[in-house]
Amino acid sequence: MADLALTRKLPGERQNLADAAFKLATWFFAVFVLVLLGAVIVALIDGSVEALRRFGPGFVLSEDWNPVKQTFGARAPMVGTLITSAIAMLVGIPISFGIAVFLTQLCPTWARRPLGVGIELLAGIPSIIYGIWGLFVFAPFMQSHIEPFLIDTLGKLPGIGPLFAGPPLGIGMLTAGIILGIMVLPFISSIMRDVFDTVPPMLKESAYGLGCTTWEVMWNVVLPFTRVGVIGGIMLGLGRALGETMAVTFVIGNAHRLSTSLLAPGTTISAALANEFTEAVEDIYQSSLVALGLILFVITLIVLSAAKYMLIRLQSRAGT
Amino acid sequence: MASTVKTLSRALATGALLAGLWSAAQAGDISGAGATFPYPIYAKWAEAYKAKSGIGLNYQSIGSGGGIKQIKSKTVDFGASDMPLEAKELDEAGLMQFPMVMGGVVPVVNVKGVQPGQLKLDGPTLANIYLGKIAKWNDPAITALNAGVSLPDQAIAVVHRSDGSGTTFIFCDYLSKVSPEWKDKVGENTSVEWPVGLGGKGNEGVAALTSRTDGAIGYVEYAYAKQNKMTHTEMKNSDGGYVQPESKAFMASAANADWSKAPGFHLLLTNQPGKDSWPISGATFILMYKQQDKPDTAKQVLEFFDWAYKNGGSLAEGLDYVPMPPKVVELVEGAWKANIKGANGQPVWSGSGS
Hints:
The structure holds 2 protein chains of 2 kinds.
Chain A: H1 2-55, H2 58-61, E1 65-66, E2 71-72, H3 75-106, H4 109-124, H5 127-152, H6 173-196, H7 201-209, H8 214-243, H9 246-251, H10 269-276, H11 283-318
Antiparallel strand pairs in A: 1-2
Helix pairs in contact in A: 1-11, 3-6, 3-8, 3-10, 4-6, 5-6, 6-8, 7-8, 8-11, 10-11
Chain B: H1 2-26, E1 30-34, H2 39-53, E2 57-60, H3 64-72, E3 78-81, H4 87-93, E4 95-110, E5 120-121, H5 123-131, H6 140-145, E6 157-161, H7 166-178, H8 180-185, E7 198-200, H9 202-212, E8 216-221, H10 222-227, E9 231-232, E10 234-236, E11 242-243, H11 247-255, E12 281-289, H12 295-311, H13 313-318, E13 322-323, H14 326-339
Parallel strand pairs in B: 1-2, 1-3, 5-10, 6-7, 6-8
Antiparallel strand pairs in B: 3-12, 4-8, 4-9, 4-12, 4-13, 10-11
């Protein structure tokens, strides 16, 4: 016994040292992220000062983007970013919810794994592949089938008609939004599936015992129980949609214009950056592009903070 | 702890070794950066020249704007740009500029039933399409030029470059020359505020959008249109003749250009006279400092260009570029002798074969 204690003592000391070093290292990594974040913010602000000073608040409000006359405004790419992400959420959330419900509640056990793995693999497809598929397969299909149909039906309705007007080009905000929706599917659905699985069977069994349908169990028991995780998954998807570059660049049409029609070409902040940085020679042009980056950063920050705030409110109301 | 130090020092040593190898690979090579349009031919020339002389060329095709920036910050031996700088800007920066190789920009269309080379367009019509004033393929302005071609009642999908590009500059410069309204509303630059249309990234992006969108019209470099067998159009030139885009039409427009009267070789080949001239032609340019800090490297660079002028013609034609005529080469090399100097004021270039 005594021997054992003695031999243990030395390694114990070394262990303490290692523990301290490990703790310090993890501290360093955590702080490093904050430093990096701060450095990015400083660099973005520093780079965009010239444009913001020259154009003032008009930079955010103006739709003008004219490299010849050197006047720049961020409204078209800003609005484009928000609209395509909104379409992506409209497409992505219901489908993801359906996938997660099927996989956790209705799917025969043998099919769960292959289906789940398949959906997760969707997340591993590089975004440029989505872009190429969008351009060569999906956009022509939109142009020849879906868009003429939308123009003839929804386009004729009063009120929302202008949203679906114009010639069918196949390339535009709607196509970009749908592609984004497909891209965020795996993120949202795999998180939804994971959190749905955490619901205690007893809760669900009790609800079924009371005579609830599957839908009622999902809507009234599973979803309220897992809302934090579900919203987290949606926000992850939204974050990806806001910043996605390559796939959008391929199918959005890259036009610095705002149109009422969702079928018209537009642009997003990240697509504009990817397209124009190489040839932005003049300082004010480059500064305007950096300012676009700053705006995207702010939008993302607002979205994430809003999500956090929503979660906190939900939690306090539920009293958990 | 000791082992950590050992690992660290080993990593550092490896890093230093790699850095050493890197600089060894760099030594003796010449470096340039800029336009993407001439990249294929510069790469081909570099390969052939390396086999002959052992001197390699490290060319980054980052775009004309990037090339101008890099040469101004002296991180490369030469810059390359499709958009020539004005003589005044050259003087301010202490740079000289000369044309290296020429090419053409070709409108391409995707209209059902229209064969390559069948559709005829003139400058004002093309400008009006890109202004959005002509929106349908069966517009009287287009059908008037194309008797016998049946054009559908279909919306025109205008396709342009979404990234900044020398190709866009040449195209817009042409439209500005033939349409006062274009010059007034849009102007010419490597990227402009397009009144209508879809943007594709790079020549390949425009080519893909045009060939995938029914009723589309776009513009690409000639080599792209040819290699992808796209439906190009005939263009009416300033002498009123219709020409097909092909090497001899680009050469015709270059032959009629008078480089000797262009200060700083600032000359645009769009809308040149001559009945066989392709109206949307352009040259791509090289930028170098007049006062060279490293005259030996500058000499190597000029030797490479001299070799390319004299022996690179067939390689250029193979890739559908148009080599500079011998008369222009003579002018350029004379300008080298007169302008590019070392620290002691001696010309870096003393004639070929030196």
